[in-house]
Structure formats: C-alpha cells, structure tokens
Specification:
Radius of gyration: 16 Å
CATH architecture: Alpha-Beta Barrel
Strand order of the largest sheet: 1-2-3-4-5-6-7-8
Bound molecules: SN-glycerol-1-phosphate
Distance between the termini: 24 Å
Order of helices and strands: EHEHEEHEHHEHEHEHH
Helix content: 25-40%
Number of helices: 9
Length: 232
C-alpha cells in the first residue's frame, strides 16, 4: 500500500460525469492543491475517466483515481483509492464490487499504488448513501466504532468521513480524528468557502472539496489558500 497521501491537507475531487471547461481545469490543477482525485457515485465510465485523466495530465499535480466502478479502472493514475463503504447495508459496496474487480484485475494490480479508504457515509440525502443503502443513523459511538474498525481491525490507511453535499458536524470530525493513531482522516462535504475550509482543516487531516468546483469555482479555489495558511 502507498502512503503518498500522508501529507496531503487539501484535495479537489473531480467528477468525470460533470462538465468542466479547460480554463476551469487549468485553474484547479495550478491552484496549489495537494492532489486531484477523480471519482463520482454515478455515471462514471472508462471513457469519461480516460478523458479527464488525459486533460489533468497536462499539469504536474498528483492525480488519484477513486475507484467507484470496476468498468472504469483506468491505468496511468499516480494512486488508486479503493473505497469500502463501512456503513453500507448492501454488501456489494463493502466487498462485493471489490471481489469482482480483483477476480478480473487482481494479478495486474500494482499494490504499491493502492490504498483502501474506510468510508463512513453520513448524509442520507447523498447519491453515495442511496447507492450503497447506507445506514446514516449513526450516533457518536457508532461513528467511532466504524473508525476503529477501519483503522485497527482492517488496517486501512484512510478513514473518510463523507458528508457529501452538506457541511458536517465538526465536533464529531474532531473526535474521530482524536482517536485515530495511524490512519489519516479525510473529511468531505459542503466545503464551499474559505471559512468552512479552515474549520474542516482544523478538525481533519485532509479536506476534500468537490461540488463547489462546479457551482462556485472562485470560492472553491480560495479553499486552497485557506488551508495552506492555516498550517498543518
Ligand atoms: C464527495 O467528499 C466529497 O465525495 C466532497 O463533498 O461534493 O460536498 O464537496 P462535496
């Protein structure tokens, strides 16, 4: 497994199923973010993933693929994140898809570029929650138990608190970070301003900015500087 993400503080997540102009992509890739992650819950195909990778490769920024569909595993990324939806009620998204993918690609995989992400899905109203039938009715103890399960039982290098589409409970984010010893805490959801970026960066190791890129590009780009100036 790789730990190339060990010092990332800020990440932009790009959805291959959404349109982005060349100019916007250039601003994103030259923004100073630590990495660009390509991923999405629906409509991700081999073709739209290859297209986006080729466009990102014009720049030097690190580029990871978060594998969401086994039809869309594209070679040529620096890193591959494999999400495991810990609170999914549909086992397809815990081990099912992964099992099928490894049946097909297992012998070809370069494991030095792969890292598992233990996802804890918090927003019932998000595409990922619907897709995985996630049980999002989690109290603090539930969320903490999932974080321990990811880190201690499964030795996952990343715990990902996914509030996709809504800004989360920063106290909870902070508490979970406090109990992790080795795993890195990724936080994503609703970061669309400098202020929210700063708040989230104070509570998580790495913050992920997604939707705002498509809705409020200037504000989304400003999150990079907000995180860098907040330090580590
Ligand atoms: C989505 O966690 C990321 O997977 C980012 O969430 O799109 O709400 O920024 P947003």
């Amino acid at each position: 497994m790789t730990d190339a993400f060990a010092h990332w503080r800020h990440v932009f997540k790009l959805d291959p199923d959404k349109e982005l102009s060349d100019e916007a992509l250039e601003r994103i890739c030259l923004s100073g973010t630590d990495a660009v992650v390509v991923g999405g819950s629906t409509g991700v195909t081999f073709d739209n993933t290859v297209d986006l990778l080729a466009r990102i490769r014009r720049y030097e920024v690190s580029c990871a693929l978060e594998i969401s569909s086994r039809e869309a595993i594209v070679p040529g990324f620096d890193l591959y994140f494999v999400p495991v939806a810990l609170n999914a009620q549909d086992a397809e998204w815990i081990v099912g898809q992964h099992h099928q993918a490894l049946k097909e690609y297992g012998p070809l995989l370069d494991w030095t570029r792969v890292a598992a992400e233990g996802y804890i899905i918090m927003n019932a109203d998000s595409a990922v929650a619907r897709l995985t039938s996630a049980n999002t009715q989690l109290d603090d103890k539930d969320a903490e138990a999932y974080a321990r399960l990811a880190e201690q039982l499964f030795s996952m290098p990343i715990v990902y608190l996914e509030y996709s589409g809504t800004f989360g409970d920063m106290e909870r984010v902070s508490r979970i970070r406090g109990l992790l010893r080795k795993a890195r805490l990724f936080y994503g959801g609703g970061i669309d301003s400098r202020d929210k970026a700063r708040q989230a960066a104070a509570c998580a190791d790495t913050i992920v900015v997604g939707n705002a890129l498509y809705e409020r590009l200037d504000d989304a780009l400003a999150t990079v500087e907000a995180v860098k100036s907040a330090g580590s």
